[in-house]
Design brief:
With about 375 residues, this protein is α/β, with parallel strands linked by helices. The chain folds into two domains: about 220 residues, 3-Layer(aba) Sandwich (Carbamate kinase), CATH 3.40.1160; about 70 residues, ACT domain (Alpha-Beta Plaits, 2-Layer Sandwich). It has eleven helices and 15 strands. The strands form three sheets. Strands 3-5-2-1-8-10-11-9 form an eight-stranded mixed beta sheet. Helix 2 packs antiparallel against helix 3, helix 2 crosses helix 5 and helix 4 packs antiparallel against helix 5. The protein is globular. The structure holds aspartic acid (ASP) and magnesium ion.
């Protein structure tokens, strides 16, 4: 038995959220890896720091200072600041050094961006590790993910080198729980890379693949995969079981629920992935495995400046009578259509009424 957990940035917003995460970890049996994202919004802030550095190092230094302050406050609230201080000091010096290099070259190269990005996950993992180890006296190890996630040199969108990663992991102690970072990796010659924005899910799935984990659990602030984003319409329902391909279909249609490459390694070794909510850890989430949902999965909206793309995702769409009827009436707005996806391109005036119709169709399919 072996589990891999991943906690996303939206769950790492405050000291109380970190306490809740620590509680979940402490109460887990058979855990091998805990993968963390940067704290909430930190990756965006690192982009702002890099952009500021192209213009003024004074401004970027101010932003680095607030970035540091945010993490110091979190560590102080958890009473682990003294354990984190040496790492934080080192991270600050690194950040200043990267910004100086960005300023000199007047542009943010992908390589420097990745080096700077890595600080987000390194800050959050040091805080979580220190809290677990020093305050809760829980047996954990801190692992720099870059020492195991070897990638090619495609900065900002690196490809993991699976064979090497699998070998790297054989050097770790199988009896230990490792707290590590999502998103980041390293080239063979030692340069920091990242797997692409939102790539922490992928790190977790690569690790689960490499150790042939029994399950990967991705912990979120919502309790599973929903049929649509509750911000666009109420009444969304939870997809309790879907297949790897169905989950990939949703991510390819633009659903933000998981990083699009996450399913590949898991499917290859039939490792189930559960998406669960940190606020209700004992409740069932959504399980992604070989077992398909088989029906319509949901609706995904991609908003552009002056139009929206509304997609119905699922199975056997071409033989669904309500969808065929909708397609006939909306034929001028039909953007893409196949057995798994029907996308309408719609302007803002007509968007709400089309959304209503699609919600009805999806809901009806779920209920039937
Ligand atoms: N922190 C990175 C990002 O926001 C990676 C992740 O959270 O998955 O893109
Ligand atoms: Mg994130």
């Amino acid at each position: 038995m072996s589990l891999v957990y991943k906690f996303g940035g939206s769950t790492i917003r405050s000291a109380s959220a970190l306490r809740m995460i620590a509680d979940i970890i402490v109460n887990s049996l058979d855990l091998r890896f805990v993968v963390v994202s940067a704290t909430y919004n930190s990756t965006n802030e690192l982009e702002e720091i890099a952009n500021a550095a192209t213009k003024s190092t004074c401004h970027s230094k101010d932003l680095i200072a607030s970035f540091l302050f945010k993490h110091e406050s979190l560590a102080r609230e958890l009473e682990v600041l003294n354990f984190c201080q040496a790492s934080f000091e080192q991270f600050k010096l690194e950040a200043i050094n990267y910004c100086d290099q960005i300023h000199e070259s007047l542009e943010v190269s992908s390589e420097l961006m990745d080096a700077l990005y890595s600080l987000g996950e390194r800050f959050s993992s040091v805080i979580l590790y220190s809290f677990l180890k020093e305050k809760l006296h829980h047996e954990v190890e801190h692992l720099d993910a870059r020492n195991v996630i070897t990638t090619n040199t495609r900065f900002r969108d690196a490809t993991p080198l699976f064979g090497i990663i699998e070998r790297n992991l054989t050097n770790l102690d199988k009896t230990k729980v490792y707290i590590t970072q999502g998103f980041i990796g390293k080239t063979i010659d030692g340069r920091t890379t990242t797997l692409g924005r939102e790539g922490s899910d992928y790190t977790a799935s690569i690790l689960a693949w490499a150790i042939k984990a029994t399950r990967l659990i991705i912990w979120k602030d919502v309790g599973g995969i929903l049929s649509w984003d509750p911000k666009i319409h109420d009444g969304a329902y939870k997809l309790s079981e879907i297949s790897y391909d169905e989950a990939t279909l949703l991510t390819e249609a633009g659903a933000k629920v998981l990083f699009h490459r996450t399913m590949n390694p898991l499917k290859e070794r039939s490792i189930p992935l559960e998406v669960k909510g940190v606020y209700a850890p004992t409740e069932h989430g959504s399980v992604i495995s070989n077992k398909p949902h088989g029906k319509i999965l949901g609706l995904v909206e991609t908003k552009k400046q002056d139009y929206s793309l509304l997609s119905i995702c699922g199975n056997k769409l071409i033989s669904n009578a309500s969808i065929n009827q909708l397609i006939e009436t909306e034929i001028n707005n039909l953007h893409e259509y196949n057995d798994n996806l029907a996308t309408f391109k719609i302007n803002s005036q007509r968007r709400d009424s089309l959304l209503e119709k699609i919600v009805q169709i999806v809901t009806h399919s779920f209920d039937s």
